[in-house]
Amino acid sequence: MQHLAGAKIKNLQVLITKKELEQEQLNREFKELQSKKDKLKHQLQKYNDEIKQLTSPQGRFIVSEHALLRYLQRVYELDLSKIEKEILTPETQEKIAEFGNGTYPGEGFSIKVVDGVVVTIVGDR
After folding, report:
1. How far apart (Å, rounded) are the C-alpha atoms in residues 41 and 36?
2. pTM score > 0.85 for this model?
3. Per-residue pLDDT for the chain (125 aa), expressed as one digit of tens each?
4. Any residues with CB less than 8 A from the CB of 114 and at least 6 apart, and which?
């Protein structure tokens, strides 16, 4: 009977040693991942600081494109839906439906389309 208990104890001690080794390995992996995470966090902060510095230099203010658009719409009373219809004529819409992404000619300009969205206008001059 004592022999069985001794074998059982020995078996449990072997299992404990294996689990301790697994735990040590996981601790090493965790430290490595934590180090990678800290480096990424530092890089992200550096990039965000650089963006902040570029977008808000001392003594200079920025007007967003959205604000410019609203100014044109509300102060100059430009009809944006009319402009949209000039850009996306029925003929152009047919071409986009047929060919998909690409650059399409308009009258005096070209439009670039990506995934059904006009992403930019290029003057033909």
Report:
1. 9
2. no
3. 667 788 899 999 999 999 999 999 999 999 999 999 999 999 999 999 888 877 766 667 778 899 999 999 999 999 999 999 999 999 999 999 999 999 999 889 999 999 999 999 999 76
4. 101
